[in-house]
Amino acid sequence: MTHEELLAKRAALVAARSEGALRIVFHSGGTRREVEYRSFGDIQAAIDAIDRDFAAQTGSRVTTFLPSFSKGF
């Protein structure tokens, strides 16, 4: 996939996740694809995969920040 196609697909996934939709329609290269995900976890996994593909194309790394909190006791 090209850089623009990855960005468009990622934007559609993020928009669907924020709207609470599990069915997503993609338009790529004149082709219409419709995908129905089983859960929001599946959508997040697809977003993560696109991020990894994008990072591989650009030669960068995907970093994740996992905060840790304590009550101070």
What does this structure look like?
This protein has about 70 residues and is of the alpha+beta class. The chain has one domain. About 50% of the residues lie in helices and about 15% in strands. The protein contains two helices and two strands, in the order αββα. Helix 1 packs antiparallel against helix 2. The chain is flat, with a radius of gyration of 15 Å.
Number of helical runs? 2
Q: What sequence of helices (H) and strands (E) makes up the elements? A: HEEH
* Unreliable stretches: none
Mean pLDDT comes to: 83
Specify the biggest β-sheet. Answer: 2 strands, antiparallel
Q: Fraction of residues in helices?
A: 40-55%
Query: Structural class, judged by helices and strands?
Result: alpha+beta
Number of strands: 2
How many whole angstroms does the radius of gyration measure? 15 Å
Number of discrete domains: 1
Topology:
Blueprint: H1 3-19, E1 23-28, E2 31-36, H2 40-58
Antiparallel strand pairs: 1-2
Highlighted features:
single chain; 73 residues; alpha+beta; two-stranded antiparallel sheet; 16% strand
